[in-house]
Amino acid sequence: MYSIHAIPAVALALACAAAPAIAQDAGQTRSLAATCTTCHGTDGISVGGVPPSLAGQSRDYLLQQLKDYKSGKRTGTIMPQHAKGYTDEQLERIAGYFAAVKPGTAPSAPRAGN
Asked: What is the pTM of this model?
């Protein structure tokens, strides 16, 4: 029989062992989301709202849009081809990433010659 005092120690050891995997997952998720930067702006905050900003949108809404692009239900620009390149799990991670980003205003592009 295990001591009642051993249970917290085991839980702590398991949590510490999982920490590198969680950090790696966070880094991989950020890398997946970075593929959206060119069109949707840094951290999903687009300049002037075109294309739409992703930051702060509902995770469920973003995920449904991505799945609709992937399935061909929603057509448009490059998004159907782009979404088809991801697994459903990757799309879930991307949607979760942008849902967690605080929405804001993107900085304006610098003027030429400045």
From this structure: 0.70
Which residue is associated with the tokens 């809404």? 61
Residue reference for tokens 């993107």: 106
Domains recognised in the chain with CATH numbers: 7-100 (1.10.760.10)
pLDDT tens-digit readout, 19-77:
444 445 778 989 999 999 999 998 999 988 789 999 999 999 999 999 999 999 999 88
Is there a contact between 36 and 78 (Cβ–Cβ < 8 Å)?
no
C-alpha–C-alpha distance, residues 45 and 106, integer Å? 6
Element (H, E) at 32: helix 6-34
Neighbours of 5 (CB within 10 A): 7
How far is the C-alpha of 28 from the C-alpha of 23, rounded, in Å? 9
